[in-house]
Backbone:
């Protein structure tokens, strides 16, 4: 039996490395799709604007992708490093799923990323376009496998337990598990949306600053970003609501914790709570009356939200992280929805590109998607505690035989490294954005298709 | 039998990693001894492929996890500190490389980080290898040893050995990729490294029976035959590399070094199989159940030809000597005169307020619809409402985008002639 300190430190280490890793795919999956689209448009139309767009976002994508890959490598090994017992128990199920992710998706990305990033001027444009699509396809495929693996841990099905080890009995139900059906579309939309905010926010900044050389690019990218957001935001709210309902049915303690109630006598919606875990009550809570019931589809306002006291104390997740993770995601989602809505209205009224207040607001929304995704994953992971495989394997029983010294030093190392990396990454983005896209000469006539494209 | 296929897959991935990322790390370490100009060039040589090359160790790791969880869950905690050290070094290497490549021009700090982290990663990998060969303490499929069990004279020697092997691969790769100064140096560097590799291989091999707690049974004829065959191939490849350094064709030393490395790995396997974690944990004991092995071997095995095919394709795209890419200047963008934006005609306070109230109500209604609040009234309201909302947004997007495209919104603005 491992010491509680090793469990606690290992949990922190995993949480920090996972959140850090997640911020990169949150951008790069969507960016890879954007890059593939704009490069294809460039090849087909020969319009240099799209090549300018491609080269500009490629700079940010390249570094983000590289950091995401190395941060992801850490996670692959952490399963065995810190969670040896877990690794042994779920290897026959999760190990295989992640193995398929690596061979189908990871290699696809890695194999073509070199061509995509360094191929400009060395390989034919059509090959470049193919490489871009392969990278984009790889990132989407990777999201699929990872969500399958994680969803199985949220709601394990299709297995048999032999000596504490999970043996897959039915691969179809393991891979396409019920939680996956809800969580995969939710995450897929989330990564596309968060990249759209990033692209839209930075484009809006160029318009706010009235950077003349970047105007066509900024307008084009803002148009793409807001178009994507207008379409996807309503769908995302619907899918997210479905995911929450599903979790209420399959992991009730998670719902109890993220709604922030202890007793099951509240029909309101909590905006803010200060939970007291020892006493099992909230020291303070601010709520909108009746809204909880309305969200639970009872418009008469009589339905109460279930509270955490229903769950035995040793099976309760931490309300702090689960509640505020959910609030970070949900409140940001409402802001995103309202902004996307306003964007569509402004565009229809021909005011979008010269509405300084809206554009300045868009700049603030640049990290919105990343914040929401981070909050969502905090709900998903801390809300499942104290289980690592829900209902089957406790996190405290899953840890490796390690000393406090080992985990503490590496945790300190990771924190130090990741804080530095984050600072370098943010500074790199800021510098790249400030430097702007490479200048595009202007000509009077419609551009001919460049010779390189004809050959 | 399937567990042996999984074992073979893990070994194959590991071999691919050692050969491919070996040269990456080697070039990185060699860049420490090169001047600024060379350092930048070395970084660019690695930049096009490190991502793909590094994927092999991830594959080796997960195949081990999925196929032989009993080995994965013992080995990883046993080599906790050096393995985390390697991961951190790999991150720093990626950071140094990407930032250097993205920065344009030579950046001393990033270049040194790339080189130093390459060295640290190679050392940590050697320590891990040494720790595995000397056998972690385990009980019932779980590691039970201490935090520094991996540290032994043998593992330190292994670290030195692996660094030299990677340097050798790096030197061979440089001969294939560079011209001029770097190319002319490979003869001396390559041969010196080859001699060092041979010496260390002999020392490590002779010390292995003492370090490894399992009984190495070279008296079994089949095993001995496989072992000596692999050694013979390695020696042959070494000879080819020796004569190939500094002499055309430039791809020959690397091909020979890759063969040498693979043969060395096979010799080690011939000595130890079927034991995966010394002294006594075998492939059979560490294996996953049949259903998992079948899925893994079929899935990974069927994908492998494709993976190899496009890796070869990507590799061929950059074959030959490294050259800086041709700088492609952007062609000009169409410029159109744009009508000056008409100042928005004020629409009156009452109308503005009314419009805003209406829009806020509409927005709240749209949010409620999207969240399926009316699902209790009738189930179809949610899906239908979302479809309508998304459809309207899509139609508005297409219409307004085409409108702006026609009006020259996405073209450059031509200077208006008075």
Residues:
């Amino acid at each position: 039996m491992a010491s509680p300190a090793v469990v606690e430190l290992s949990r922190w280490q995993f949480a920090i490395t996972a959140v850090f890793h997640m911020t990169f795919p949150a951008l790069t999956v969507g960016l890879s799709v954007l890059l593939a689209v704009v490069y294809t448009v460039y090849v087909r139309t020969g319009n240099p604007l799209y090549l300018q767009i491609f080269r500009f976002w490629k700079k940010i994508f390249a570094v983000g992708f590289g950091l995401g890959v190395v941060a992801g490598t850490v996670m692959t090994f952490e399963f065995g490093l810190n969670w040896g017992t877990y690794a042994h128990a779920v290897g026959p199920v999760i190990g295989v799923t992640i193995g398929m992710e690596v061979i189908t998706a990871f290699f696809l990305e890695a194999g073509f990323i070199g061509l995509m990033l360094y191929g400009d001027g060395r390989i034919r444009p059509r090959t470049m376009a193919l490489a871009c699509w392969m990278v984009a396809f790889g990132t989407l495929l990777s999201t699929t496998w990872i969500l399958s693996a994680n969803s199985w841990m949220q709601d394990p099905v299709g297995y048999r337990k032999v000596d504490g080890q999970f043996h897959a009995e039915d691969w179809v139900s393991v891979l396409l598990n019920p939680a996956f059906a809800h969580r995969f579309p939710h995450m897929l939309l989330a990564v596309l949306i968060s990249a759209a905010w990033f692209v839209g926010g930075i484009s809006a900044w160029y318009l706010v600053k009235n950077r003349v050389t970047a105007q066509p690019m900024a307008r084009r990218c803002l148009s793409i970003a807001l178009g994507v957001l207008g379409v996807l935001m309503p769908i995302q709210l619907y899918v997210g609501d479905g995911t929450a309902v599903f979790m209420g049915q399959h992991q009730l303690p998670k719902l109890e914790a993220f709604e922030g109630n202890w007793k099951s006598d509240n029909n309101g919606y909590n905006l803010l709570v200060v939970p007291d875990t020892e006493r099992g009550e909230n020291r303070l809570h601010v709520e909108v009356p009746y809204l909880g019931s309305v969200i639970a589809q009872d418009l008469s306002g009589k339905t109460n939200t279930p509270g955490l006291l229903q769950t035995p104390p040793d099976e309760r997740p931490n309300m702090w992280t689960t509640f505020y993770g959910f609030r970070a995601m949900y409140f940001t989602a409402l802001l995103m929805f309202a902004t996307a809505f306003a964007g569509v209205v402004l565009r229809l009224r021909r005011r979008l590109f010269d509405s300084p207040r809206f554009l300045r607001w868009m700049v603030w929304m640049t990290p919105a998607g990343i914040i929401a995704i981070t909050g969502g994953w905090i709900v998903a992971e801390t809300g499942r505690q104290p289980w690592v495989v829900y209902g089957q394997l406790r996190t405290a029983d899953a840890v490796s035989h390690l000393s406090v010294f080992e985990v503490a030093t590496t945790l300190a190392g990771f924190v130090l490294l990741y804080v530095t990396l984050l600072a370098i990454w943010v500074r790199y983005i800021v510098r790249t954005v400030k430097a702007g896209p490479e200048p595009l000469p202007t000509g009077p006539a419609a551009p001919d298709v460049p010779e390189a494209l004809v050959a | 039998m399937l567990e042996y296929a999984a074992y073979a897959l893990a070994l194959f991935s590991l071999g691919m990693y050692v050969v491919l990322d070996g040269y990456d790390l080697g070039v990185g370490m060699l860049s420490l001894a090169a001047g600024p100009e060379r350092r930048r060039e070395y970084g660019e040589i690695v930049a096009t492929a490190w991502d793909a090359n590094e994927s092999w160790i991830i594959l080796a790791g997960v195949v081990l996890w999925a196929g032989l969880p009993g080995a994965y869950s013992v080995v990883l905690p046993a080599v906790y500190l050096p393995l985390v050290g390697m991961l951190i070094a790999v991150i720093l290497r990626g950071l140094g490389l990407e930032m250097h490549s993205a920065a344009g021009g030579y950046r001393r700090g990033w270049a040194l980080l790339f080189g130093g982290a390459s060295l640290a990663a190679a050392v940590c990998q050697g320590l891990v290898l040494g720790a595995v060969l000397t056998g972690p303490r385990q009980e019932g499929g779980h590691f039970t040893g201490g935090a520094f069990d991996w540290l032994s004279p043998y593992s330190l020697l292994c670290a030195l050995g692996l660094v030299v092997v990677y340097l050798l691969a790096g030197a061979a790769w440089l001969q294939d990729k560079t011209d001029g100064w770097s190319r002319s140096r490979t003869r001396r560097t390559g041969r010196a490294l080859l001699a060092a590799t041979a010496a260390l291989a002999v020392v490590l091999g002779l010390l292995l029976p003492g370090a490894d707690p399992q009984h190495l049974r070279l008296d079994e004829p089949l095993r001995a035959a496989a072992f000596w065959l692999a050694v013979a191939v390695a020696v042959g490849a070494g000879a080819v590399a020796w004569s190939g350094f500094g002499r055309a064709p430039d791809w020959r030393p690397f091909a020979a070094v890759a063969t040498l490395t693979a043969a060395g790995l096979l010799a080690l396997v011939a000595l130890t199989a079927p034991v995966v974690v010394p002294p006594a944990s075998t492939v059979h004991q560490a294996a996953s159940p049949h259903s998992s092995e079948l899925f893994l071997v079929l899935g990974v095995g069927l994908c492998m030809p494709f993976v190899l095919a496009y890796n070869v394709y990507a590799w061929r795209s950059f074959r030959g000597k490294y050259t800086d890419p041709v700088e492609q200047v952007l062609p000009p963008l169409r410029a159109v005169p744009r009508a000056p934006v008409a100042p928005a005609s004020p629409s009156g306070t009452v109308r503005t307020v009314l419009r805003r109230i209406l829009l806020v109500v509409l927005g709240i209604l749209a949010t409620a619809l999207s969240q399926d609040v009316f699902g209790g009234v009738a189930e179809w309201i949610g899906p239908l409402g979302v479809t309508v909302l998304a459809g309207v947004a899509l139609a508005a997007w297409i219409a307004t985008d085409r409108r702006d495209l026609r009006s020259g919104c996405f073209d450059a603005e031509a200077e208006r002639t008075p």
